[in-house]
TrEMBL record:
Segments forming domain Polysaccharide chain length determinant N-terminal: 28-132
Source species of the chain: Shewanella litoralis
Gene name per UniProt: wzz
Descriptive protein name: LPS biosynthesis protein
Subcellular location as annotated: Cell membrane
Residues covered by region (Disordered): 1-20
Membrane spanning stretches: 44-62, 300-324
Amino acid sequence: MNNQNKQLNPDAQFQPYATQPMGNVENDEIDLRELFSVIWQGKWIIIAITFVFTVASVVFAISQPNIYKSEALLSPADSEQAGGGLAALAGQFGGLASMAGINLGGGGGVDKTKMAIEVMKSRQFASEFIQKHQILADLMAAEKWNMADNTLSYKVDLYDAEQNKWMREAKAPFKPEPSMQEAYKVFSKIVAVNAAKDSGMVTISVEHLSPVVAQQWVNWLIQDINTVMKERDVAEAIKSTEFLESKIQQTNVADIRSILYKLVEEQAKTIMFAEVRDEYVFKTIDPALISEEKAKPKRALICVLGTMLGGMLGVMFVLIRYFVKKED
């Protein structure tokens, strides 16, 4: 009989093992009512932590100086006069010119606008810009803009404006006066050059404590990049002209000499075009203005985020403390 009962109930010996996991699952389930109860019991701790973060965020937001932004909208200047003639000659007489040992290149060339943007982002351009306009102190040591008399105050531990002397303490290889590498890091953060993909328009913007300084730097940037690109093209055209004239003296083939004279003529057009045009690479569509409103900091947003962070940390602290005590 016992054997028959065992055969009729083959799973009876496994019943204790079958019911045990169900109990573990129930114990592992999170009771939302328990969580809300824990949070409610620790509400004063949460309020205290949130209050501390709120006060800290308010103090931090108030202590941040106003930053003003000035920007200008530019349009790429028409460069057909500078390169269109050479491209046409390259397509027509490239074979004959190669016989004289001259490579006219392809018709594509390099986009002058993109090159100008990359030049403005380069370390060399930034270093020359800072040194030319003597703005190192305004860039690295400015602390506050005085609206009443439109002057800048400097950090006394970094720069003495009266003696025009750097006072900062620096360990080798650094010196009291910031290097151009240090200045470039700061310069690249406050100066932005962006080109719109759809329209091709270029925006140059500068952020600074002083809206007057920000506007002045934008104007200087536009003037300097036009001057730099102009000088590069003129120097290249002069060098090319000298090379072409030497090739003219070396050949007696009439057709090749005719091509070389046309190339010299195109280089002369490039020089003339550069000399008579101040806005060589970029034309100003919307000039930079002295901003009347600050660009940052967003003090209200800082306070809201600080309060939310304090509330979340307060809730996490209460829950973690409860579960640690519960396990103990």
